[in-house]
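yo

u said u wanted the structure for the complex thing, so here. seqs first:
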Amino acid sequence: GEGPVGCADSFGAKLDVVIDEIREAGRQGVWMRVPIAQAAAIPAAAARGFRYHHAEGDSAMLLAWLPPSASPVPDFATHVIGVGGMVLDEASHEVLVVKERVAATSTSQGSWKLPGGLVDLGEEFADGAAREVLEETGVRAAFRAILAARHQHGAAFGRDDLYMICLMAPLTTEIDFDPHEISDCRWIPLSEYYDATRATSKRQGVEENFNAFVVRNVLAACERGDDLGRLGFGSREMGSPVGYQKGVTGLTSKPTYRIYSGLSRRTASI
Amino acid sequence: GEGPVGCADSFGAKLDVVIDEIREAGRQGVWMRVPIAQAAAIPAAAARGFRYHHAEGDSAMLLAWLPPSASPVPDFATHVIGVGGMVLDEASHEVLVVKERVAATSTSQGSWKLPGGLVDLGEEFADGAAREVLEETGVRAAFRAILAARHQHGAAFGRDDLYMICLMAPLTTEIDFDPHEISDCRWIPLSEYYDATRATSKRQGVEENFNAFVVRNVLAACERGDDLGRLGFGSREMGSPVGYQKGVTGLTSKPTYRIYSGLSRRTASI
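structre next:
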């Protein structure tokens, strides 16, 4: 027949021929991009071993791995990357903090936190941090360094997340916060923000959460009079090899004093 | 009718009712998980504004954003993360290098490179680096620090990639390389590997590629007699707040000497 069932039957028969040809050519995997309006073809493909590799917007990409072994094709993408902006006034040691309308976890609801958010696809970390700080607080700030990063598993949609605290220098000070996302925004002494991170750690049932860890070490660096510009990993334009787009960034460690500890997991923190 | 067309019609009519209910409840977005065997329902959903948010394996997740504004729902995942293992014998300054059977770019074909690969979903960076080194070379090595990271755009499937060079201490020295992926594997002097990275940079038409940048700085640290254990970002178990799974890792900068330069993009490298 000429209806959808007949179409699916005839699509399936054609697919059998194509898969046989590809197998005979010695190929092990077959990719198929299916526009969303043609998704009715997918069950016939699934019956022949195709599974979703990824899908976004208007199309799905399916893969059939032909050998009986597990597919070695890498996942589409495993991570989202977040950036938190520690905008620190070096003269006053005041830091820009926000309260989110709805916090990511109930235990952090109502706590002061650093402005920040997810880096967009194609965005530089430094640009993402400056954008998030500006969007949430109205303050313009310049990226200086990545101070520390936290790697977590099982975030949204089962993906992993890497969250990086970026030291930033304020270029403006006036606050004009986004009332949709943020319920309050202030410049407070770094020591006061440290107390807030310790209170949140306590509510979370951990001795010291990531933010408290980072702030404690930055506070110690301030107290020692360290040059904060020398902390962490900086950013640097790199030569872009043929075949790669522009926007290559090297995050380069810089001379630091003893800020953060931990040679390995077996070493206790300072 | 009761055939697929009739089913799709009736599914579409039901979906209209559900969307209206959701809209009236003041919700802005509607998620729909569709098993691959039921993909025939997707065109009817697409006609009502649903688009793929993501799909993996046996199911697709579709999202309809109801307001006329752009959807603020974050991408599924934006990044893959790769780890390269710089397994360095501190006494001899020999480094473990491989030649890939098929290199990622034609300009790096036949060059010595560090063993490495993509971190698996849910895997710690240190574990991923040790796994990749072992799989490719047969050498067991212990993670010490992340020395530098490179952020690139437009990698496989249009995603971004973050590639991190990990300093590792060899626990064994005997090479037993994977002949499927690797055509050669050796311990060579770090200075010889630096020459290889410079030759690759030249073929790529860049003054200094990322590997050359990192090796040049590690070589300089070796020549100064720096304690290599003090370079870069280390790894540290962090308290895991309620609601997060285990496997939380802090990458903590450690005391370093002046290894890498670049306070900002405006600062030239040393």
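The domain at 4-65 of chain A is CATH 3.40.630.30 (Aminopeptidase). The mean pLDDT of chain A is 83.
cya
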